Amino acid sequence: MTTSALAFGALAMGTAASAAPSAQVIWSSEKNPGDGAWFNGPLSIPYALSPQANIALTSPTTTSATTLAVDPSVQYQTMLGIGTSLEESTVFNLSRMSLAKRTEVLKKLLDPATGAGMNLLRITFGTSDFTGRQFYTYDDRPAGQTDPSLTYFSIQKDIDYNIVSTIKQALAVNPNLKIFASPWSPPAWMKDNGSLIGGKLLSQYIPTLATYYRRAIQAYQAQGIPIYALTVQNEPLYQAPDYPSASVDSTQARQLIVALKNELNANGLSTRIWAFDHNFDSALAYVTPTLNDAAGNAATDGVAFHDYAGDPSSMTQVRNAWPNKNIMMTERSVWGTSGADRMAQYFRNWAAGYNGWVTMLDSNIQPEKWTGTPGPTMLIQSASSYDNYWALPEVYLIGQYSKYVKAGAKRISSSYGSASTVTNVSFLNPDNTIVSVVINQTASSQRFKLASEGWELLATLPAKTVGTYVWARENAPTATNLLANPGFEADGTLSSWNSEWHSAELAHKVDTDYPYTGNYKLTHYSAAAYQQISGQTKAVANGTYRASVWARSSGGQRALRLYAKGYGGAELTAEIGSGAVAGYTQYIINGIPVTNGNIEVGVYSDANAQNWAAFDQFELVKQ
């Protein structure tokens, strides 16, 4: 007896008694992303955190659309925050504004109710390349002089340059802001070239530098500004030719992190230490000496990344090697819907936070002392009328995340989609609302549906637009998946699953190659012709059940199906068939009448050599 395959996106079928929830919908669009023309003046933006009509979630349908499955029961990292920087260039321009306009700008960025709700800010300890001042640290001495006792240590320039007062004003706008700091260079006398520009940290000053950082944290704390975390050196593998920087090798980094943690502990400070703070391509090699060392590992709270070389998957590599370390994307400006998708990739690779870099230059692209020509910042100030400024789409595109994904949210399992249709990343907020951020990078509108816990949201997203969809999970239908290890996420193995095979070596395995959700999937494959059964037998109460699986295949099999048997009746199947299935499709057997207290659910392949099939997110629920 066979039941037809259905390709809708529900992860569970529930009872009809639950009232259908309604999703809040917000859109933001790109406009000339990354174009220097933005420095010439504002441009019209189609959507800017623009609320749309709510969309009611419905029972699953057979409507054809890109399906994004969202499963809040599978959870990943806890989100810390999303935001930008208050480096000195931005502070310099804010300080030229009237108090009212400065407050308006900070509210546009930080206010959780009326603005973009950003809640994580990066500041610099000492100067960076984005400044309108002479380069400085907190203990500068004339050439040839040193200060190992830090007698001349002071953050007074940060006070004089309005950095401290601006951060205080930011905290007044959003008291839940978290501030983390990054130094561009130690004092010149701690380096082998005696300069803030380039050079290498002298190892003899590692204990002194640890004390220097601890005192900077305390000095800010005395101003009423708690420093949540510190990266011990911005871009430690790069010696810039014309702005503050320093080479700090991996051995020095380990020693510095341990020394700093000892300083913090001895002074009752809870500031976190984030290692690295540089590009994807060098991360694993750089942090390994620290995180494979017992003292270094204990002293390190997280690993910070920049996105100027390499791939975001390096964050997953580091996280998988050391699962107890937070992963942070601390510096990368992004533009347009491709930038919003890049953010989704950061989060899908375990980043617990994101920070843009440089928030507001003026229309003359000032002040800055970087080597190159900066791209447009998310806010731009008129160089001739300081209270006149304009916001770029990036304020709103980042706001699609920062306003709705709250601190403490969990990233949850969701299918990514594709750049040719829509892409996605999803979260579960502490208040039990689900937030799905959907990105349309294409030149045409895209129809899609979000499928979660028995509900379906069918929507159309305009071209070059990001949509955020928020709904309350407590209204979801109640249905429990009765299968153990249904997505193979428990331990990345076939635990709880049985096997039968014929005419070949064992032809099933769990792997990480393109899962539907999570990190793992089941694959049927052999170089020779094979027959393979992968199933699970469960004791269940008598009643009516529904079985399903998400599958894709190469095609070419003699038979490929989902089955249910041993329930007290004839075997039921949902035929996947011999044709190729390019994208994951859900195959469902409805109305299984269990009368003997047992059921076996599984998949069967009768395949030719090198045929493959992939399976994920099996489900058995009572109807």
Automatic annotation (TrEMBL):
A GO molecular-function annotation: glucosylceramidase activity
InterPro entries in the cross-refs: GH, GH30_C, Glyco_hydro_30, Glyco_hydro_30_TIM-barrel, Glyco_hydro_b
Keywords tagged on the record: Glycosidase, Hydrolase, Signal
Any Pfam family hit: Glyco_hydro_30C
Residues of the Glycosyl hydrolase family 30 TIM-barrel domain: 81-404
A single cellular component GO annotation: membrane
Domain Glycosyl hydrolase family 30 beta sandwich span(s) in chain numbering: 408-469
One of the GO biological process terms: glucosylceramide catabolic process
Signal peptide: 1-19
Similarity comment text for this entry: Belongs to the glycosyl hydrolase 30 family.
PANTHER family the UniProt entry points to: GLUCOSYLCERAMIDASE, LYSOSOMAL ACID GLUCOSYLCERAMIDASE
The name this protein goes by in its record: Glycosyl hydrolase
Protein species of origin: Cystobacter fuscus (strain ATCC 25194 / DSM 2262 / NBRC 100088 / M29)
